[in-house]
Amino acid sequence: MATTPKNASTRNSVFEIVRTQLLGVCREHQRDFGAEIRLDSSLIADLGLDSLSLVEAVVAIEQAFGIERLPLEALSEACGEAHFTVGSLVDLCIEHATVLVTADEGMRT
């Protein structure tokens, strides 16, 4: 499926929110955290999240988007924990969010 400009804009907006939440959790657990958070960053290998910090990040992301519960177990089974990336988390948020922020509109939809 081709990505439309609106879809790309939405994905970028969601990525920025996810990145902000992940950065907060990473810095809380690793005071000297300085890694760049990209869509292809592994949550475990690149960002160094352990089970506790991953849960904290997911809860923060769920709250940011008004998601009751992200089904991470389905994603980890499909991708494998080692390949669980920021991009896969962004896609999961887009799929399950009831409230999204779009850059074009500058508002929650």
From TrEMBL:
Keywords of this entry: Phosphopantetheine, Phosphoprotein
Coiled coil stretches, renumbered: none
Keyword Nucleotide-binding: no
Pfam family, one: PP-binding
InterPro entries reported in the protein's UniProt record: ACP-like_sf (IPR036736), PP-bd_ACP (IPR009081), Ppantetheine_attach_site (IPR006162)
Ranges for domain Carrier: 12-97
Domain of life: Bacteria
Protein name: Phosphopantetheine-binding protein
Organism name: Paraburkholderia translucens
